[in-house]
Design brief:
Distance between the termini: 40 Å
Helix content: over 70%
Number of helices: 10
Order of helices and strands: HHHHHHHHHH
Strand content: under 5%
Low-confidence stretches: 103-113
Number of domains: 1
Radius of gyration: 18 Å
Mean pLDDT: 82
Number of strands: 0
Structural class: mainly alpha
Length: 224
């Protein structure tokens, strides 16, 4: 392929990967939860935590994009099954967020009892990266994106996968920036506004989970 055609393929693959994965990760939806679970943490620790979560998200998504389908083949698991499982987990988490009784300054789901400099690396991956920010639904979509980016031509595949990797890195950077400045972004909403925003994002997340579940179930039904 000529260079202009490769650049066009790169751009299309980049936009495709971003459009497919970013709405599922949706850092704006989990920003209120992040501020809740890091309540009382100093700015330096919160900044380091945001950077760690961004790196972990990027690595998880890149791994799922590049080798996720091969791992599933090794264990004999199909993509529709991953979508069903991921949809169930996402919908379950969103349902708990939607029905949480406490306000954002409480500790919904009790996912992190204390985040400090001593346990920042542990908390950065679980639960703040997985499953809060990048759960099974995001990973399932990233695996699907990786399978879609594969082409018979080696050069074209290198271009499409490079675009996919860049998209996942950009999503990780966006997560890190959103979490780093989550308090400032949510401050204009006020306490009541944050509650309303969190409930709205929880409902959207629930809808996404149901959609992922339905996509997987539909594929399984068609294979019968």
């Amino acid at each position: 392929m000529e260079i202009p055609a490769l650049l066009m393929t790169f751009g299309k693959s980049l936009l495709f990967a971003l459009a497919a994965v970013l709405p599922i990760v949706n850092p704006l939806a989990t920003a209120p939860v992040f501020t809740t679970l890091t309540h009382g943490v100093d700015d330096a620790t919160r900044a380091e935590l945001a950077r760690s979560i961004g790196r972990h998200v990027a690595m998880l998504l890149i791994g799922a994009t590049l080798v996720g389908s091969y791992v599933l083949d090794f264990f004999g698991v199909s993509l529709p099954i991953v979508r069903v499982a991921g949809g169930l987990v996402v919908a379950s988490m969103a349902w708990r967020m939607l029905n949480a009784q406490q306000a954002p300054d409480g500790d919904p789901d009790q996912m992190a009892q204390s985040v400090s400099a001593a346990n920042i690396q542990i908390r950065a991956f679980y639960p703040l990266t997985f499953p809060l920010t990048c759960g099974p639904g995001s990973i399932a979509v990233a695996i699907t994106v990786g399978a879609s980016l594969h082409t018979p031509k080696v050069t074209e595949s290198l271009v499409t996968f490079s675009a996919g990797v860049l998209a996942m890195v950009l999503i990780g950077v966006l997560v890190a920036l959103t979490y780093r400045y989550a308090s400032r972004l949510l401050r204009p909403l006020g306490a009541v506004g944050q509650i309303v925003f969190m409930r709205l994002m929880a409902f959207i997340l629930l809808s996404i989970g149901v959609q992922i579940l339905w996509d997987g179930a539909s594929a399984l039904l068609r294979s019968l």
